[in-house]
Design goal:
CATH architecture of the largest domain: 3-Layer(aba) Sandwich
Structural class: alpha/beta
CATH class of the largest domain: Alpha Beta
Bound molecules: iron/sulfur cluster
Oligomer: single chain
Order of helices and strands: EHEHEHEEHEEHEHEHEEHH
Strand content: 25-35%
Helix content: 25-40%
Length: about 290
Amino acid sequence: MLRSPKRPFVVTFASGKGGAGKTLMATNFAHYLARDREITLLDCDVEEPNCALFLKGEVLERTVVTVATPSHVEERCLMCGECARRCRFNAVLKVGERIHLFPKLCHSCAYCSDLCPVHALPMVPREIGVLQRSQVGRLTLLEGRLNLGEEKGVGVIERVLKEGCAPQDGPLPDLVLVDAPPGTACPAQAAVAAADLLICVTEPTPYGGHDRELLLALAKELGVPAIPLLNRVPTHLTQEFEEGTLLVPHDLEIATSYATGRLAYENNLPLLGALDLLKGAVFHVP
Ligand code: SF4
Ligand code: SF4
């Protein structure tokens, strides 16, 4: 694991779908590593952040996350309609002699604002979510939460990544772990693109195999090295998988701990063994 002096080493846990085990792995691995070093964990699953259910720490800070969107100043407007014609995302519409704005479609590019000849579309902040910082021993947890009904998950994810990987106050962390949103769409891509190493968490099923292929293709496209990790592997199948794939066995104790909001690794040898192997893999990335 090589850290640049300007940014930490970032390990992202991603999965093709929710429930595959990335939060289980990210929270247990973060807590396991934080026994002897400073660790930052970023919960970027902003539509359903749940790392804090397992890492119950003291909340130190809560800040609002905003994005810039245009607001219309009617008394200045010439009704030329240029803003509506040029917005590629149909976030501005001219109907008769009225301008309508659709903030949830806006991509904050400020093009309409810049082109308006009379400055009738100033960019203003719009709240889309919150960022919460909490502390559990040597582990700092930064959680992004998208407001209900909002669609701009990427805006909150980018803010969490920025705060976690390049904090304005305090020292730069050595290692940052990221719990990514599920899937391979834009929110997941934002979390994977920030990674130096991707852990692809999937299940040993045909559907999981399909998810794994998609994630590995995404990692390749973005130039991020990836390690496959299979969760809930039946013990009689552990010999079936290729070398280099990390395996977490199917285990009732792990499932029970997860379902009741507890970390499992301290009392579970198979999971502890998997975390030891994962640590070895992370710290041996050139
Ligand atoms: S570009 Fe400016 S002046 Fe023209 S319709 Fe849009 S807001 Fe009004
Ligand atoms: S800021 Fe960009 S995306 Fe948003 S309304 Fe203006 S042109 Fe459209």
